[in-house]
Design a protein that fits this description.
The complex is a heterodimer of chains A (305) and B (957).
Chain A (H helix, E strand, L loop, with lengths): L9 H7 L22 H9 L2 H24 L10 H4 L5 H13 L2 H20 L1 H6 L5 H35 L4 E2 L6 E2 L1 H32 L3 H19 L29 H28 L5
Antiparallel strand pairs in A: 1-2
Helix pairs in contact in A: 3-6, 3-8, 5-8, 5-9, 6-8, 6-9, 6-10, 8-9, 9-10, 9-11
Chain B lengths: L12 H6 L4 E12 L5 E12 L7 E5 L10 H9 L3 E5 L19 H14 L5 E3 L2 E2 L1 E6 L1 H12 L3 E7 L5 H5 L15 H13 L3 H17 L2 H9 L4 H13 L4 H9 L13 E6 L7 H13 L4 E6 L10 H16 L36 E9 L6 E8 L9 E6 L5 E5 L21 H5 L11 E5 L7 E5 L2 E7 L4 E10 L5 E2 L6 E5 L6 E6 L3 E5 L4 E7 L12 E16 L4 E3 L5 H19 L21 E9 L5 E10 L4 E5 L6 H8 L7 E6 L2 E2 L10 E4 L11 H11 L9 H8 L14 H13 L5 E5 L7 H16 L3 E5 L3 H7 L2 E6 L2 E7 H6 L4 E4 L3 H10 L5 E5 L2 E5 L5 H10 L6 E4 L3 H15 L29
Parallel strand pairs in B: 3-4, 3-7, 7-8, 8-9, 9-10, 10-11, 28-33, 28-34, 31-32, 32-33
Antiparallel strand pairs in B: 1-2, 2-4, 5-6, 11-12, 12-25, 13-24, 14-24, 15-23, 16-22, 17-21, 17-24, 18-19, 18-20, 18-23, 26-27, 26-29, 29-30, 34-35, 36-38, 36-39, 37-38
The chains are: A mainly alpha (305), B alpha+beta (957).
Chain lengths: 305, 957
């Protein structure tokens, strides 16, 4: 407490110089609900958090770790059981970027997205900063909207940086070669290959929105960030387990994660759109309903944390 | 005859077509007359399936495969019945419980039988008739049943639609193929398949049947009876057919008589006369009846001007993916189209293994008569669908089938010197392509083994290979290659096209080989070889390898040792393709559009219903008296756990007041402040700030600065950043945060630039108060602001608050430090058990009743003396003396009485201690127990208007 300075003698006087009590409008001068919690502010509030930095560090290091693993252990192309994308992973930067999706979409990106979207409201509640934002007042729907946009933005960046870094790492390690499609061995030039990667990226983003929506609902439902993030990841894991029960047949199409690898159809010589369109439709359904549910819950919630 | 079993009635055909419905199955025995002279009586074992629908229905004849009975097509028949057709299945003559002998779909026998079944149908009630004796009828079947379908359609023009699957066009060229283009009599005998078929004809098909046949022949050998032997060898085959087979099987060659018999049993004889629209479905995995057979039928039917479409699917006699759901759906759609006049609808998406197979023909692809039918469709195996783990099939379609020669050709150059090929004596060991019969052992075993069984015996094979392909090579049709051969008469070779990957692994697509035989080769004769028809893609980087081998497991080959010279006679293989074939994703399922629309509706419903918070902009909520900083009326809040936290609280705070909000723990102070901040939804009552109704997020809150229930900061940011970002969050871009002033109040010095994570409790506390004061709000609410502050800081904070209110602003202060409240606040509200117990200026609360504290060390005696005085209202012992309600007496009277009694009086003064008043206010209720909220009249006033205790200024209700 030694750093505590004494009271500033000027303070009381200054305070009285601006008498504010008046029977004016019912709101503070200059208050604009639409200017509350700007996206830039929310972005900065989240940016310097340790979890944000660590997540991005992991995502950016991952491609280099994979490069190292392939350099050490080979790509297993001689083993016929090896999945196609692994055997072609070392064919060049483009192939390695495609492989990076394969390696990360199933779990790593899920965790990252769940982290950004599950943590966003629950952490504010646990810090107690949520009530000061709401009493500022930031209208509830706006607070949720701004936080959702920023969380989705961070999630989006997380999904984008992995293949970009993989493109760089793969090109450094194995050079810039045409994209060799697994299975058929068809090679695509840079233009077409980047187009395919963009399609994959778009589709992966769509499927990750479901994870984001699950995490977001949990985030407004609990004051525990860990519960929201872990809950979302848990839902994904359970969905994957159920999806593995092939006896369920067509019912598995209702699972949000059933479609998470449908983007592999964009690596066929001729793109097969149907699974991706169906997957996108299912993702959209889950996302829009869950996000609406989040707004509904938060709208009427008593904030007692 | 079995009785009719009516499962249910009353359903209409329309509903049955769209939804599985009940059906009836009626077993029948139908007598027919056949034979060359129409004098053989045969009784056919049949079943008529009908949907339980009223009215006359179109009919479908459903034939079974070789070695099977009507039971084999029961499932398909039920599917058709549910789609609104009357379906007649029957065991062909010589099979099952039908009488007669097997004549191989002969025009004299089986065709006549089927024609009489059509006549029988025409006599049945409830069958739609085109003319008297001419029912509206389609016919379908696979393999043996497919051939009878085509044969019947060629002979009987009452047939209105045909769907033959995996069947032959010409049984002679199917069993004696010759890729060198010679006549069938010069063909190479397909001995394994022929043997399997004829064995099935004698004893049934499958392992059990084969065992039964072995047992029967053993019995025949033991008895030595010629008749028994004949029965055991020929089973139910017509003797002429049996003799023909025994002859060709022994020779390993065709005879003209055999060719004549087989040709008579071939749709090739009559296909050009077929007038019924025909959907030909042929398997890609089929070394028995290859794609070339269906191609010939297609050409012949089309030559007569009859609509015909062709489907190549992934199954066949060798296994692969039989795409059952899709194939059945295609047949139903075809009959819907041609027997009911319905527009073509894509077959329903299968739910079997080939989930992504989709349907044939998207709506844009135009086939026969512009109806959007398949025209020509090909299933392409794209390997395993990574998203589901299922085999991924896609369907490519074109408006019409261009023929096996394709419409575009690509020459793949081959290299390799002329080579000598040895035909081993006895033809053993043979090379391998397909393994006949393996496909019937089940499912996709044959398909999955496809290509992996293929072997070429060293020394018996010549190979020619291409350079790696620069681009992928799609072939659809039958490739051709010109080779130069020399050798003895009857030179026999098997041509195979391998797909060789970069690692050198060779795959034989669909396990197909093309046998060729040159009966009298001249030296260096040039032969054009037509390779097996297929739809296949060679990946870029792969090589094409042409292999010519002298033997094949499935065929009869010359038994004499021979040497052949084999070389290329042209630059390479001509690969046909059909660029018109376009992969069509199945039309998107209905739910792809319906589900998102439903989800949007559901989401809208979620947002528009349920408990809604009132918005501050509602004009009805506007108060006219806009000057009051805070007014609370009838506030009640019961939490979800049932706790009644605030119970009908009324409160009014005026400009310039510093209001102390007092109450024991659980009195409802925090709940009141939460409601005041719009954090919780009151059950009843209103809160207005400067005349504006407070709801969640209402704009009135912008004039409120609050510090409630502890600080809330982002721990990873510095105190300064926290305040700056908070100010930027509260939506007053143009206003002045007065940052310097509030930072001075916080007094954190250089710590303001350190991360909040490292702050002590008191530092957080002061930063939070500073945050509440940002922008100098007109109404400042501070909850326990003094906790954690040291005495100098408390004193300083007191001055700050007094100055703050002196400017006309309003401060609400909740604290347990009653002494501080007493010194700081102008007004006090005391809450207890959710209700307001007292409210008013501090002076009135603590001093209004005129209590006197008389300081004396001899408390007990003093109390006794004073108590004995007349007119004293009450006397209480106090740690510092006695507390007296003097009543009518003056202080001097009391002092005089005490002094008179010899009790020392050290001091006399008004009891100006808030603590006493507070305890007096809440004490009796505490004593009254938790269960009774209403005061007992001597303590807490509870709406009954009894006298105020301890001089409370105002009675609440």
């Amino acid at each position: 407490m030694t750093e505590l300075a004494g009271p500033s003698p000027a303070v009381p006087g200054e305070l009285t110089t601006s008498p504010a009590a008046s029977a004016g409008p019912g709101e503070a001068p200059g208050y604009r609900p639409r200017r509350t919690l700007p996206l830039a502010v929310e972005t900065v509030r989240q940016l310097h958090r340790r979890r944000t930095l660590i997540t991005f560090a992991l995502l950016l290091v991952l491609p280099w770790v994979l490069v190292g693993a392939f350099e050490l252990g080979g790509n297993g192309a001689a083993d016929p059981q090896t999945p196609g994308l692994v055997t072609t992973a070392t064919a060049g930067g483009l192939n390695f970027a495609a492989f990076a999706f394969f390696a990360s979409a199933g779990f790593l990106l899920v965790v990252a997205v769940a982290l950004f979207c599950g943590d966003t409201v629950a952490t504010e509640a646990s810090w107690a900063s949520l009530r000061y934002l709401l009493a500022a007042p930031v209208p509830r729907a706006r607070l949720l909207r701004q936080k959702l946009i920023v969380a989705l933005g961070y999630s989006c960046v997380a999904v984008v940086v992995v293949p970009l870094m993989a493109l760089l790492a793969g090109t450094v390690a194995w050079g810039w070669h045409p994209l060799k499609l697994p299975g058929s061995g068809v090679e695509l030039g840079a233009g077409a290959a980047l187009g395919r990667l963009a399609i994959i990226l778009g589709y992966v983003l769509i499927t990750e929105v479901v994870v984001a929506a699950i995490a977001f609902v949990l985030s407004v439902s609990t004051d525990s960030p860990l519960g929201a993030v872990g809950g979302a990841v848990g839902v994904v894991i359970v969905s994957n387990i159920i999806d593995a029960i092939t006896a369920l047949g067509a019912w598995r199409r209702l699972l949000p994660t059933h479609w998470q690898f449908s983007w592999l159809n964009a690596l066929q010589p001729q793109i097969s759109w149907t699974p991706m369109i169906e997957g996108a439709a299912v993702s959209f359904c889950y996302s829009v309903v869950l996000i609406a549910l989040a707004f509904r819950r938060f709208r009427a919630k008593d904030i007692v944390s | 005859m079995a009785g009719v079993v009516l499962v249910a009635g009353g359903a209409t055909a329309a509903t049955l077509a769209s939804r599985p419905g009940p059906y009836t199955a009626r077993d029948l025995r139908i007598p027919v007359l056949d034979g060359p002279h129409d004098n053989q009586r045969v009784v056919l074992d049949a079943t008529l399936f009908r949907p339980a629908a009223a009215g006359r229905l179109p009919a479908v004849l459903l034939a079974h495969g070789f070695g099977e009975t009507k039971a084999a097509v029961r499932g398909e028949a039920i599917g058709l019945a549910r789609a609104g057709f009357a379906v007649l299945t029957w065991s062909a003559r010589g099979f099952g419980r039908s009488t007669g002998q097997i004549a191989l779909d002969s025009p004299d026998y089986e065709v006549k039988d089927t024609e009489q079944l059509i006549s029988w149908l025409a006599r049945q009630p409830g069958i739609l008739l085109d003319h008297p004796g001419d029912p509206r009828v389609g016919i379908a079947g696979a393999s043996y049943g497919g051939a009878i379908a085509l044969m019947t359609a060629g002979y009987d023009h009452r047939i209105d639609a045909v769907v033959p699957e995996i069947t032959w066009n010409n049984l002679a060229t199917a069993l004696f193929p010759n890729a060198a283009g010679g006549p069938a009599v010069d063909g190479v005998f397909k001995k394994q398949w022929a043997g399997l078929l004829f064995t099935a004809g004698t004893a049934g098909f499958g392992p059990a049947g084969l065992a039964a046949a072995a047992g029967a022949s053993g019995a025949a050998g033991a008895s030595g009876s010629g008749a028994l032997a004949s029965a055991a060898v020929c089973g139910r085959l017509l003797p002429s057919i049996c003799a023909m087979y025994q002859q060709v099987a022994s020779l390993g060659r065709a005879t003209p008589q055999a060719i004549a018999i087989l040709r008579a049993s071939s749709p090739a004889q009559v296909a050009s006369r077929i007038s019924a629209p025909t959907l030909l479905i042929q398997g890609e995995n089929d070394s028995l009846f290859g794609l070339d057979q269906a191609a010939a039928t297609y050409r012949q039917i089309r030559s007569g001007g009859t609509p015909a479409d062709l489907v190549w699917f992934n199954g066949g006699h060798d296994g692969g993916n039989q795409e059952s759901a899709r194939v059945d759906g295609l047949a139903i759609s075809w009959f819907d189209r041609w027997l009911k006049g319905r527009p073509w609808r894509p077959a329903s998406r299968g739910t079997g293994p080939a989930t992504s197979a989709g349907s044939a023909g998207g709506p844009a692809r135009v086939g026969t008569a512009g109806t959007g039918q398949p025209g020509f469709s090909v299933s392409r195996n794209l390997g395993f669908d990574p998203s589901s783990g299922d085999l991924s099939l896609q369907v490519a379609t074109a408006p019409a089938f261009p023929g096996l020669a394709g419409t575009r050709h690509r020459l793949v150059r081959l290299t390799g010197p002329p080579q000598v090929v040895l035909n081993p004596p006895g033809g053993a060991p043979p090379s391998m392509s397909a393994f006949p019969g393996l496909g019937s052992l089940g499912g996709s075993l044959g398909g999955s083994l496809s290509g992996s069984l293929a072997t070429d015996m060293p020394g018996q094979s010549a190979a020619f290979q291409s350079a790696p392909l620069a681009t992928p090579l799609q072939i659809t049709g039958a490739p051709t290659v010109r080779i130069r051969v020399s050798g003895p008469a009857g030179l026999t070779l098997f041509a195979k096209v391998y797909d060789v990957d970069q690692a050198g692994n060779a795959t034989l697509p669909f396990s197909l080989a093309a046998p060729l035989r040159v009966s009298q080769p001249s030296s260096g004769q040039v032969v054009t070889v037509t390779l097996p028809a297929m739809d296949y893609q060679f990946a870029a980087g792969h090589r094409v390898r042409l292999v010519l081998t002298a033997t094949d497991f499935g065929y009869a080959t010359p038994t004499r040792l021979a040497l052949y010279q084999v070389g290329l006679a042209g630059p390479g293989i001509v690969m046909p393709s059909d660029p018109a074939l376009v992969l069509t994703d199945a039309g998107l399922a209905w739910w792809v559009w319906a589900a998102p629309a439903a989800a949007v509706v559901l989401a809208a419903g979620l947002l528009l219903t349920g408990r809604r918070r009132r918005t501050g902009s509602d004009p009805a909520d506007e108060e006219t008296d806009s000057g009051v900083p805070l007014e609370i009326a009838g506030l009640t809040k019961r939490y979800r756990d049932g706790q009644l936290a605030v119970d009908g609280l009324d409160l009014r705070v005026e400009h310039g007041q510093i209001l102390g909000l007092l109450g024991p723990n659980g009195a409802g102070k925090t709940t009141t402040l939460r409601a005041l901040m719009g954090l919780i939804q009151p059950d009843t009552g209103t809160i207005t700030i400067f005349g504006r109704r407070v709801t969640a997020g209402s704009a009135a809150l912008s004039r409120l600065g609050a510090f409630v229930e502890g600080p809330g900061f982002l721990p990873h940011l510095s105190g300064r950043d926290n305040l700056a970002l908070y100010w930027r969050s509260i939506g007053r871009p143009g206003a002045d945060p007065q940052l310097a002033e509030v930072l001075a109040i916080a007094g954190l010095g250089s710590a303001i630039d350190r991360k909040v994570r490292g702050y002590s409790r008191g530092m957080c506390q002061r930063l939070a108060i500073a945050q509440a004061m940002l922008g100098l709000p007109d109404l400042l609410v501070l909850d326990e602001p003094l906790n954690g502050l040291d005495p100098p800081q408390i004193r300083e904070m007191r001055d700050v608050l007094i100055d703050y209110a002196a400017g006309g602003r309003t401060v609400i202060l909740s604290s347990h430090l009653l002494g501080e409240v007493e010194q700081t606040c102008s007004h006090v509200v005391v809450m207890h058990n959710g209700r307001r117990v007292a409210a008013g200026p501090v002076a009135e609360i603590i001093g209004g009743g005129g209590s006197l504290l008389i300081g004396t060390p001899r408390t007990a005696e003093a109390a006794a003396v004073l108590g004995s005085l007349g007119g004293v209202a009450s006397v209480e012992a106090h740690p510092d003396g006695v507390l007296v309600q003097p009543g009518d007496l003056a202080a001097s009277d009391l002092v005089a009485a005490l002094v008179g009694a010899g009790i020392p009086v050290e001091r006399v003064g008004p009891s100006r201690r808030l603590e006493d008043a507070f305890l007096a206010l809440i004490g009796p209720a505490e004593l009254a127990g938790a269960g009774t909220r209403a005061g007992d009249g001597t303590g807490t006033p509870a709406g009954d208007g009894t006298g105020p205790p301890a001089g409370a200024a105002e009675v609440v209700r």
